[in-house]
Design goal:
Blueprint: E1 4-9, H1 13-23, E2 29-35, H2 38-48, E3 52-55, H3 64-74, E4 79-84, H4 89-98, E5 102-105, H5 110-121, E6 126-127, H6 129-139, H7 152-162, H8 167-174, H9 178-192, H10 197-206
Parallel strand pairs: 1-2, 1-3, 3-4, 4-5, 5-6
Helix pairs in contact: 2-3, 3-4, 6-10, 7-8, 7-9, 7-10, 8-9, 9-10
Amino acid sequence: MSGLRLVIVDDHPVVRDGLRGMLGTQSDFEIVGEAAGGAEALTVVEATRPDVVLTDLRMPEPSGGALIRLLLERVPQTRILVLTTHDTDSDVLPAVEAGAIGYLLKDAPREELFRAVRAAARGQTVLSPSVAALLLARVRPRSPGPAAKLSAREREVLALIAQGRTNREAAAALFITEATVKTHLLHIYAKLEVPDRAAAVSAAHRRGLL
């Protein structure tokens, strides 16, 4: 993937400067616009039509879920990746319901941010573990029953993924193929009833599997 066009939306100039400098280190990222609030963001995104918008939530109006909804109405092909310090119900749920494809916290490591931007551009959902846990608890508020039993190898794969290892790194550590790791992950997702890696790690911690 190359030439991902990005717009940064945040009402703090220092944050925008930091993100611009950080994202600018990646040869496949191009910062095509910035905005300090919702109204400016709508104008900039309509003019530049980026692949991904990185946006905070609490800014001059429109903001939060309302801004995300308006951005997607005007430029439907754009992916919205929330980057914020807020992970409460009142922030997360409206953003996700409005159509944000990802939700990261600002303390995420830079490599995680880079991966999230690329994943968002591909249309893949990206969630911080705390956000994934909140959404799962909301969807399934009752206490979950005993988790389906994970095999010893599935637990090993899950433990490595929880450490931030890639599929390739996990395969090398366990002396198995990357395809086998992917198969184990699919089984883990099915047993834990989760959609992705972050949610699997979060669910495993909640259920005492890690």
